[in-house]
Automatic annotation (TrEMBL):
Coiled coil: none
Protein name: Methylase protein
GO BP terms: methylation
Molecular functions (GO terms): methyltransferase activity
Keyword Ion transport: no
Entries under InterPro entries matching the protein: MnmM_MeTrfase (IPR010719), SAM-dependent_MTases_sf (IPR029063)
Keyword hit for Methyltransferase: yes
CDD domains in the record: AdoMet_MTases
Source organism, top-level taxon: Bacteria
Keywords assigned: Methyltransferase, Transferase
Lineage, opening ranks: Bacteria, Bacillati, Bacillota, Bacilli, Bacillales
């Protein structure tokens, strides 16, 4: 048996859920790795909506997408993921967040609990049945610890009749190891 690392697990989950032609969201583009994966998965007939609050991240993502030749199916927005409802125009098949700060960037600029919870609420309403929201949570910094606590509390309260919520983490790792939460929308039960 070979347990998957945090990011490979998140990416494997996207590969199992996202299909060509889907509408998906990268809520935190960062350096563009997840955006590129999503663009490949949805193909030319799909659409990726990518957000980041830092122009540096948008520029890095744009360069990565241009180098791969997948810019036609991607729309990048330099804004908080809290603005998802302003830009998202149809049901969403999948969304991914990498919470924390931009790798190689200013560690003082981080995602926040308020904007993350606001965007989660919007995405849960937009999510297709069988679709997923993936949260990769990096909490090895003060703002990250606050955000982690708020996100975990929020996710623990999600109604089980409407969503499955999974936590994937390695419990024997030190130094605030990152972990993943996956929220899957369930088909409503008939009474």
């Amino acid at each position: 048996m070979n347990l998957r690392g945090i990011l490979p697990f998140a990416h494997d989950t996207l590969r199992k859920v996202v299909r060509p032609g889907d509408y998906v969201i990268d809520a935190t583009c960062g350096n563009g790795h997840d955006t590129l994966l999503l663009a490949d998965l949805v193909g030319i007939n799909g659409h990726v909506l990518g957000f980041d609050i830092q122009q540096q991240a948008i520029n890095a993502t744009k360069t990565r997408l241009e180098n791969a030749g997948v810019t036609p199916q991607v729309e990048l927005v330099c804004a908080s993921h809290a603005f998802i409802p302003k830009y998202a125009t149809k049901p969403v098949r999948a969304a991914i967040f990498n919470l924390g700060y931009l790798p190689g960037g200013d560690k003082e600029i981080t995602t926040t609990a308020d904007s993350t919870l606001e965007s989660l609420g919007h995405l849960m309403r937009l999510l297709e049945v069988g679709g997923v929201i993936i949260l990769v949570i990096y909490h090895g910094h003060p703002a990250g610890k606050l955000e982690k606590d708020a996100v975990v509390t929020f996710c623990e309260a999600i109604p089980q009749q409407n969503f499955h919520v999974l936590s994937y983490n390695f419990i024997n790792q030190k130094n605030d190891a990152p972990f993943v939460i996956v929220i899957e929308k369930r088909k409503p039960r008939q009474s």
